[in-house]
């Protein structure tokens, strides 16, 4: 199926590149991405043109998002169309799932799940859809009238469905997407749920207002009223007004209730009239009069033709240059003894086009003097007050200039060819691959060195919500800079495991891949805390972080069936580790049993929990070793709680 993606933009430089990449790098790529510029005065045009094919830029001089979308449609050649806002995003498989739902349907509209995308602190986080819940007795139109909806980033239109709806109405300045969908539903276009895919509907940060954020303004209330009156008229013309009287009355009532006391009286009065017309407030429906009025306010739609496309100039995008700069972010805190080895392993890479950002998180040892002795123009020293490893990595992200970003902890090291092999693999990979990690050589206190080989690649979100598939992998990881732009920084409010949270957020939008060779040297001996009290504190921080991980990702984990596995893993840690809390472990096992009563594993571990600590630990360790490779089992201890 040939898919065209239309992106209207007006001064959207902050997020436009993210939206374009999100569409371009789909597992089923669109044949074209049409950026319809609505008179931008910022860098939006330059950003769009820098991509080259399949991105085309057209001018849409008539003001308004609906007019820009209509202009984009007039230029589109695809059998199916998505109208993607310039600040929204798609999961990598979204177009493929929507196309599967639409295939062979004729005039139909496919929809997928959607999530809100909000900036919280330094992090962009996905949350549940922020619309009213759908009532089981409502059909699609009744649900849409009463506040349930799908934003444009979760909809794929067949060309026939779009034309049946009458196209975008350029005179509708707000709620134009709801207007188009409801007209399609009135025209009998079916809404087909897709089996997968997710659209991410961004809520702009404080101080920036999107069109949807104006819904309760005087202008927004008037626009919503106009759309509602239009839909009511179409239902009257179709003789279907009786079926939707109650949803219409509820929709009018909501507008009337949201009008402020000092707001536009004509809007409030018209909304109250709408409630009465449809049987609300105990009024008598005046259907005969309304049928007569319908002819006087009938509406016919139609997409306005757009101007000719402006060919995108042959500008090479940054991702196409031969030798991309790699920014290496190395946070450190009081690790002068191991820092030199880490730095030398970076500056000694066979791939030389790099910058090394050593972020000193308030060290009180010889770290500053050590760095001062190193004379390499590629090294930048960034000291800060002690704020933790997440804040240190975030400072590195803010200061980085590379298109590829690699992370290294200050007690680990790299093999000399690590970056060269990762850069080559990243350059050969499609843009939807946003993270690449390597195998590990794990050294232990007793001198043993074990090799860990990665296994998870592709769409890893279901797996990473169950466990950190990268294990010790922070020091082995390379990401695209645009992935960091999409998800923001590490969450500095988490007590531990901020890397696991970060990888999970990236996995929503990008595929993962790996280089199996052990190119990263992980020093497990140097990371193991010595004092028992310290171990207990770290365990408590890890478990608290795991609880927070469930809170932050629980809605998604439940969708992909990962909640049970995560609860079982947390319970096992409590029962197996000396620092664990048996009662807390049992509570988690009971939750897991309630979630999946037919699975025997929670009951086996509940029985184990009744044993004394010695036999319980031995049996638990035996069970773990039967299902987990040695290096991976070590990794479950959580390296992120130790200093960077």
TrEMBL record:
It holds the Pfam family Glycos_transf_2. Gene3D superfamilies: Spore Coat Polysaccharide Biosynthesis Protein SpsA, Chain A. This is Glycosyltransferase 2-like domain-containing protein. InterPro entries: Glyco_trans_2-like (IPR001173), Glycosyltransf_2 (IPR050834), Nucleotide-diphossugar_trans (IPR029044). SUPFAM superfamilies: Nucleotide-diphospho-sugar transferases. Residues 4-138, 327-484 form the Glycosyltransferase 2-like domain. It comes from the Bacteria. Residues 295-316 are annotated as: Disordered.
């Amino acid at each position: 199926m040939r898919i065209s993606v239309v992106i209207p933009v007006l001064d959207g430089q902050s997020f436009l590149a993210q939206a374009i990449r999100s569409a371009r790098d789909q597992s089923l790529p669109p044949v074209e991405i049409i950026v319809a510029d609505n008179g931008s005065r910022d860098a939006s045009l330059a950003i769009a043109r820098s991509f080259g094919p399949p991105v085309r830029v057209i001018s849409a001089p008539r003001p308004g998002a609906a007019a820009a979308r209509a202009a984009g449609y007039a230029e589109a050649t695809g059998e199916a169309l998505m109208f993607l806002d310039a600040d929204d995003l798609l999961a990598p498989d979204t177009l493929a799932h929507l196309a599967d739902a639409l295939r062979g349907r004729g005039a139909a509209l496919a929809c997928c799940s959607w999530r809100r995308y909000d900036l919280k602190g330094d992090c962009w986080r996905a949350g549940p859809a922020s619309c009213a819940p759908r009532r089981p007795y409502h059909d699609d139109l009744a649900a849409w009238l009463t506040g349930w909806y799908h934003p444009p980033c979760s909809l794929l239109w067949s060309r026939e469905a779009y034309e049946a709806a009458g196209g975008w109405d350029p005179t509708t300045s707000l709620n134009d997407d709801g207007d188009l969908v409801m007209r399609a539903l009135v025209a009998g276009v079916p809404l087909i749920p897709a089996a997968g895919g997710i659209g991410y509907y961004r809520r702009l940060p404080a101080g920036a207002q999107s069109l949807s954020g104006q819904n309760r303004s005087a202008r927004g209330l008037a626009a919503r009223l106009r759309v509602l009156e239009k839909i009511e008229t179409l239902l009257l013309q179709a003789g279907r007004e009786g079926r939707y009287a109650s949803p219409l009355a509820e929709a009018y009532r909501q507008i009337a209730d949201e009008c402020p006391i000092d707001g536009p009286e004509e809007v409030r009065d018209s909304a109250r009239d709408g409630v009465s017309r449809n049987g609300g407030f105990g009024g008598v429906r005046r259907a005969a009069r309304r049928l007569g009025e319908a002819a006087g306010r009938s509406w016919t739609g139609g997409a306005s033709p757009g101007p000719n496309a402006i060919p995108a100039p042959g500008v090479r995008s940054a991702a196409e240059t031969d030798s991309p700069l790699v920014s290496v972010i190395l946070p450190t805190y009081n690790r002068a003894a191991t820092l030199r080895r880490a730095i030398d392993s970076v500056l000694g890479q066979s791939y030389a086009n790099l910058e090394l950002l050593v972020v000193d998180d308030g060290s009180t040892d010889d770290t500053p003097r050590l760095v001062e002795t190193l004379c390499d123009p590629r090294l930048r020293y960034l000291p800060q007050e002690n704020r933790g490893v997440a804040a240190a990595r975030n400072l590195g992200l803010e200061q980085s200039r590379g298109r590829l970003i690699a992370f290294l902890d200050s007690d680990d090291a790299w093999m000399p060819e690590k970056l060269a092999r990762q850069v080559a693999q990243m350059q050969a990979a499609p843009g939807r691959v946003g993270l690449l990690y390597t195998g590990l050589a794990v050294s232990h206190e007793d001198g043993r060195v074990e090799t860990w080989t990665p296994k998870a690649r592709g769409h890893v979100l279901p797996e990473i919500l169950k466990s950190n598939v990268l294990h010790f992998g922070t020091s082995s990881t390379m990401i695209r800079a645009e992935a960091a732009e999409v998800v923001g920084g590490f969450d500095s409010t988490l007590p531990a495991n901020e890397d696991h949270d970060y990888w999970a957020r990236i996995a929503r939008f990008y595929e993962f891949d790996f280089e199996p060779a052990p190119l990263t040297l992980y020093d497990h001996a140097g990371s193991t805390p010595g004092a028992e009290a310290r171990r207990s504190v770290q365990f408590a921080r890890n478990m608290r972080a795991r609880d927070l991980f469930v809170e932050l990702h629980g809605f998604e984990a439940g969708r992909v069936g990962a909640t049970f596995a995560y609860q079982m893993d947390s319970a096992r840690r409590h029962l197996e580790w000396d620092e664990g809390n048996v009662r807390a472990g049992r509570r988690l096992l009971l939750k897991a049993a309630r979630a999946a009563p037919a699975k025997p594993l929670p009951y086996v571990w509940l029985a184990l929990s009744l044993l004394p600590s010695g036999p319980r630990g031995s049996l638990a360790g035996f069970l773990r070793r039967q299902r987990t490779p040695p290096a991976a089992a070590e990794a479950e201890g959580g390296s992120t709680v130790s200093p960077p």
